[in-house]
Amino acid sequence: MVVLKSLPKSTGSGWRVTSDKLAANHNRCWLRVVADLLLSGLILVGSAWAAEFDEYAVKAAYLYNFAKFVEWPPETFADADAPLRVCIAGDNPFGGALATLSDKTVGSHRVEVLLVPATTGFDQCHIVFISRAEQGRFKALLAKLGRLPILTISDIGDFAQAGGMIGLVETNQRIRFDINLAATRQANLKLSSQLLKLATIVN
């Protein structure tokens, strides 16, 4: 497993992601911006080269912003300052875009990005992105994650319909997302109603 940040052991009591009024206002502003981008078509895919670069820069931002609207079980974090770990399963399609996530924070949790094999190493992840390269075996990975409190995200086709939690979908040169509420509830994850308003809900 290639670790981009240190990986301390998970121990102790947990903590819930919360926000004060200022953070809530910031989050609402972000949601309005994303909604405007999605509805107005400003998240576009251009030329062949720019499409790949821009697509994954946007998706990297989505990984971070999704985390702001998810509540993990209290025991998920060792303490109030424990990192929130975003894991990339298998091949890394993001390139340098992941650098924008490192050392950002969600509440008091510093974001860490980890590159992990597609078969193991997820026990201390909070978010797992499954790349398209894992299309042939992503269902087995989802089964392995089972009911663990890990948010699963992918741009594999029909990911949410197949049991993943958030599927990123490119439609008409725009990136939207599907959410499988049944999967998130089985994992004991709570998603903000504000986030759900922007998603297509599938089960």
Can you tell me about this structure?
The structure is a single chain. The protein is globular and about 40 Å long. With 203 residues, the protein is α/β, with parallel strands linked by helices. Strand 4 (105-106) and strand 5 form a beta hairpin. The chain has a single domain (20-202), classed as 3-Layer(aba) Sandwich (Rossmann fold). Helix content is 29%, strand content 23%. The chain is built from 5 helices and 11 strands, in the order E-H-H-E-E-E-E-E-H-E-E-E-H-E-H-E. The chain has helices spanning 21-40, 48-67, 138-145, 181-186, 193-197; strands at 2-3, 70-71, 84-89, 105-106, 109-116, 127-130, 151-154, 166-171, 174-180, 190-191, 200-202.
The major β-sheet equals: 9 strands, mixed
Radius of gyration: 16 Å
| Strand fraction | 15-25%
Q: What percent of residues adopt helix (DSSP H or I)?
A: 25-40%
- What is the total tally of β strands? 11
For the record, the CATH class is: Alpha Beta
Uncertain segments are: 1-22, 35-53
